[in-house]
Task: structure prediction
Amino acid sequence: MKIIICDPVSPKGIALLQQRPEFQVVVLPKRLSEAELLPIVADATALVVRSETKVTRKVIEAAKQLRVVGRAGVGVDNVDIDAATQHGVVVMNTPGGNTVTTAELSFTMLLCLARKVPQAHATMVAGKWDRKLFQGVELQGKTLGVLGFGRIGTEVAKRALAFGMRVVAYDPYLTEDRAKAVGAEFAPELDHVYREADFITVHMPVTKETREMLNAAAFAKMKPGVKIVNCARGEIISETDLLAALESNKVAGAALDVFAVEPLPADHPYRKAANLILTPHLGASTEEAQEKCGIEVAEVIAGYLLTGEVRNAVNLPYLDAKTYEQVKPYLPLAEALGKLLSQLSTVSADRLHITYGGNARQLPNIDPVTRAVLRGYLASSNIKDVNNVNVRTVAQSIGITVEEKKSDEPVTFNEWLHVQAFSNGKKLVSAGGTFFGSPNNPRIVRLFSQSVELPVTGPLLLLNNSDKPGIIGLLGTLLGKYNVNIASMSLSRDTAGGQALTVLSLDSVPPQAVLDELHKDADISNVKVVNL
Result:
């Protein structure tokens, strides 16, 4: 497996990958443009980047064997997440590597804003001694508004509390209990932070909701003389509106480490604002952070490629190696159920309902199993390259909704996985499965609400027949005539002399001539071949 290191990362991280015989590690000598990358990534299994290299849709489409992109750092805005997901590529970052480093820089910015350290230094270098110009304020007793209370925001809050500040935290995913556990006050809405804060520090990703969220309307709601720190993403602040707020002194000062366009253009008006502190995206620029990120990105890539472990993925739920081992036995069963329903459905389903019963309810993560059902269901479609990463997105794009339920209802089997396919509210087909003896022996045991016992691989011949003597002999004779061997057989009937469901597991797919003869028999109907 070929791993290309596109940007400079810690040598220790590179060494971790190089020591694995399964990997061919290629370190690029410099950052390459999109056009330069296209021929190089054609046979790449993994790409490792920092913030410099842009992994665009064209790059992803050119990398036909690409399985994972590892970002040595937190932000992944230089990676086209949508394109990666559509092509089944996992995107992983290293959120823990630069947490402390970025938090320390943010707090440094707070101190510099409070005491005007950079401006004072500049006058000293210029030969001046202007003490009266640089009277500052204490942090103690001031209110810090933290926008985004993830790893970095939490670490900044801890340092602010140690300085005697009051911390008010806002995050759409934050609970009041978690805020209190850190020692912060919970802000139910952004406006609460704007009204209360003397200082505001930003630690949010760029989304449709956060892009330019700090704009003229937001500044108008803030205290006069508020000070703002942004070490997250430049696009979160409207540059034009911030400059206007600085000029009017509504915002007394701002410290920025990130910008909408980087590097910051030489003629950018930010450079002329006296009450701005600017640094060239130094958030993760410490020796410790670079080493941590390099090692962590190597570990997450190796874990995914070698064991299927999913850690720090931004487009796939977390799945550690232990959890993977727990869900692994269910994956062949789930995929077989999906394939079976797809091939038995007379029309395309618009809804799949998946029930987890018995011990399956205790699985710590059912998402991989659900994805396996979807992957099986879509296997017979014309959609290419469907895999675990993109299967939910693909299903959604063609109008299939997925319902998952952990059921407490009593079941006959220790493990129970049941899937129903619906179209316009009408059930098309259903099937359920379990394990016989051990997790290595999955079986389909329910089909059309009837008891069966079927393997999860190979071709199956399914049919309904009258429950009368001679049918089994007819089937055996007919298949023998065409040299098709029967591996196993499952019979189920509603009542004696009524209708039966017969399923034959075969060693090979029967020719069309077999099906034609079966269709002619008045006692046989609904003949279908399914290939699992």
About this structure: The chain has three domains: 2-95+289-316, 99-278, 325-531. The radius of gyration is 31 Å.
